[in-house]
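Colleagues,

For the teaching module next term, I've prepared a clean inverse folding example: a structure given as tokens, and then the sequence designed for it. I'd like students to try predicting residues themselves before seeing the answer, so please don't circulate the second half yet.
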């Protein structure tokens, strides 16, 4: 576990479109049990970690299907930790991101998928669609899940460069539901045990 993210085997914001808006994670040196407040997210089956970095207080990890790279991808899954960002709500973040997305892509569409509390933390899930990204000429469809922790703010994204099938959407909604924040210091926000 490093920098508030626990990844188990098993963005850019808006991918190419919103590199304008965001940035990735330092290499993980082995699997440790979660400690303190932690984002728990699986590396999706068939995906690999292709980029990790830190930019100021933002730590990001970008994952793509085997055979693709962050420079040339059709799908991407990313996690972002905004260290120390305690005053941001998922709804406020969603609105700000939507406004920037709409500025960057004409005829975009947005839809809220879910919001509320999970494991005691406020969250929101939404989707943004760009019919044609000006830099790639391709569509861009991104699902976001934002979670406001007590210590940090967390964001995960699932991006496509083509309209996903119904089966893909169902699969990724299950994966996004499993993304969570936990805290080993709080009995009512337990972290899962990580099997080695």
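(Answer key — instructors only)
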């Amino acid at each position: 576990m490093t920098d508030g993210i626990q990844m188990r085997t098993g963005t850019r914001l808006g991918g190419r479109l919103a590199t304008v808006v965001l940035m990735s994670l330092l290499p993980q040196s082995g699997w440790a049990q979660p400690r303190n407040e932690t984002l728990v997210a699986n590396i999706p089956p068939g995906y690999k970690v292709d980029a990790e970095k830190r930019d100021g207080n933002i730590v990001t990890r970008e994952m793509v299907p085997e055979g693709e790279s962050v420079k040339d991808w059709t799908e991407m899954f990313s996690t972002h930790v905004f260290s120390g960002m305690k005053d941001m709500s998922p709804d406020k973040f969603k609105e700000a991101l939507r406004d920037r997305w709409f500025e960057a892509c004409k005829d975009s569409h947005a839809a809220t998928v879910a919001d509320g509390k999970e494991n005691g933390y406020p969250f929101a899930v939404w989707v943004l669609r760009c019919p044609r990204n000006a830099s790639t000429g391709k569509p861009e469809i991104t699902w976001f899940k934002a979670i406001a922790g007590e210590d940090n703010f967390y964001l995960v994204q699932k991006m496509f460069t083509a309209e996903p099938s119904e089966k893909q959407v169902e699969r990724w909604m299950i994966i996004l539901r499993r993304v969570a924040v936990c805290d080993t210091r709080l009995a009512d926000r337990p972290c899962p045990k990580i099997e080695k």
